[in-house]
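Can anyone check this?
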Amino acid sequence: MSEKTVEMEVGATAEYSRTVTEDDIVAFAEISGDDNPVHLDEEYAAGTVFKGRIAHGILSLSFISTVLGTKLPGPGCIYLEQNSKFKKPVYPGDTVTAKVEVLEYDPKTGKASLATTCHNQDGALLIEGSARILFRE
């Protein structure tokens, strides 16, 4: 089981990085049922605005959940809400770093507001948004 690595307080941050592989994309398509050819068919995807296959946006966004469930705040976190804007695509082989920052936290109610972002290995902003969670220490 994961252990909390960061204390819940305003300004606290935590990150998780993962390189998105071909296997990740195929597995996500199988699990989610989203077999859009932009994710799975190189020939099809080459003719799109992306000029090649891209990962599912929600696959990359799921790395925010990884941060919440394993680092900040960690085990016991309940994900209540996520608002996100997808800014740039994630290509196979990209390394995505998901970051969470605590903006507000009320220890009495256990509710927190967070800023959420994902960047690639070049520092390009892929996803930006906000989340609300419930966590009681």
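Reply from J.R.: I decoded it. Residues 50 and 136 are 42 Å apart (CA to CA).
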